[in-house]
Automatic annotation (TrEMBL):
Keywords: Glycosyltransferase, Transferase
Gene Ontology MF terms: glycosyltransferase activity
Protein name in UniProt: Glycosyltransferase subfamily 4-like N-terminal domain-containing protein
Gene3D superfamilies: Glycogen Phosphorylase B
Native source species: Acrocarpospora phusangensis
């Protein structure tokens, strides 16, 4: 099977796209064409891929990326058995003549936006995509009218842990934004600094958060590494006293499982999380739950862990064992590939349109 995978908004090393889904397809013997912003993200494509470079769609600067995406998808899908896209942007760039097409729904974009007009337009685009395309979901959602396969954001869980939990460093992996607790993380770093505990932030930041992080780093409160490919970020997290997941109680997060929670468990890092329902369900007591927006409670939880090595080592062992049993991506990879193989053998549900324009999803 030949699969064309496309993104113009996400990093080419995105863990879900490159290191889970594409890797599963390659391991199953399939050929992959990957449309992604390699140059803009300073990434060299893996040699086993057929790579098509496009500009990255960022903020309001998306027209050039859209035009390039139209041409790239047309080229990539020409001899493909299946087209797999990961962005709302690419739903508006789909070529008229294409194989069966799948939209991988990563997150609820409409829930992240203020106002009424844009979220309403996104909902209409989602409904249209559901009628015309195959969908796979990162997590169960009630915003779609039909059932769709769920391909969760599980991770690679090593057979054994390489580093024990230490006592002088905490970490937070993932995008840094206001609703993801960026300000809380900075305050936690300030509270723990007198105790010799350093905070490592590993991930990109929203534009208005970056000056706060730079100031905190210049003050010696924390180290902010920016974007790091997921497999390297997880290695950097190993041996930390705790992994923090401080997302706020907002609609975009309320029904989501922060991937970092299971990544910390997988790498033997004790977890401190806010009480999002799915995070609490995933931890099942093998972590520490703190109130929303309460840096003092987070700092105290860290100090308690530092003072109790037996407790943190117990959390480490139990969390790793359960992650290996429940959240190991290779256990899910076969089902993901099987869905794509089945759809590639089916006729496309999309009706033909004028050859002079792309088909909106």
């Amino acid at each position: 099977m030949k699969v064309c995978v496309g993104t113009v908004t996400r990093h080419p090393e995105d863990a879900r796209i490159m290191h889970r889904q594409i890797r599963a397809l390659l391991d199953a013997g399939h050929e992959v064409t990957y449309v992604a912003p390699f140059t803009d993200c300073n990434v060299t494509p893996a040699p086993e891929l057929r790579a098509i470079d496009v500009p990255r769609a960022v903020g309001l600067h998306r027209v050039r990326a859209h035009r390039a995406g139209v041409a790239a998808l047309r080229r990539g899908a020409r001899d493909a058995d299946l087209l797999l896209v990961h962005d709302l942007d690419l739903l508006l760039a789909l070529p008229r003549r294409r194989p069966p097409t799948v939209w991988d729904v990563h997150e609820d974009m409409a829930a992240r936006l203020d106002g009424k007009t844009l979220p309403r337009l996104i909902r209409r685009l989602e409904a249209r995509a559901e009628r015309r395309l195959h969908l796979i979901l990162a997590e169960q959602s009630d915003r779609f009218g039909r059932e769709h396969p769920v391909v969760p954001n599980h991770t690679y869980v090593p057979d054994a842990l390489s580093k024990p939990s230490g006592d002088n460093r905490i970490v937070a992996i993932g995008r840094l934004g206001e609703s993801r607790g960026a300000a809380d993380l900075i305050e936690v770093a300030r509270l723990l600094h007198p105790y010799g505990i350093r905070l490592d932030l590993i991930g990109p930041a929203d534009p208005h958060i970056r000056p706060l992080l730079r100031d905190a780093q210049r003050s010696g409160l924390l180290d902010w590494f920016g974007y790091v490919p997921n497999r390297h970020a997880l290695r950097m997290a190993e041996g930390a006293l705790a992994g923090l997941s401080l997302a706020h109680d907002v609609p975009a997060h309320r029904d989501a499982l922060p991937t970092k929670v299971i990544e910390y468990l997988a790498r033997g890092v004790p977890v401190i999380s806010t009480p999002l329902p799915r995070a609490v369900a995933a931890l099942r007591g093998d972590g520490i739950v703190v109130p929303f927006g309460d840096p003092e409670a987070v700092a105290q939880a860290v100090l308690d862990l530092k003072a109790d090595p037996a407790r943190r080592h117990a959390l480490t062992a139990r969390g790793h064992a359960r992650a290996r049993a429940e959240f190991h991506w290779p256990d899910r990879a076969g089902a993901f590939v099987a869905h794509l193989e089945a759809w590639a053998g089916a006729p496309s549900p999309v009706a033909a349109r004028s050859s002079h324009r792309a088909v909106p999803a």
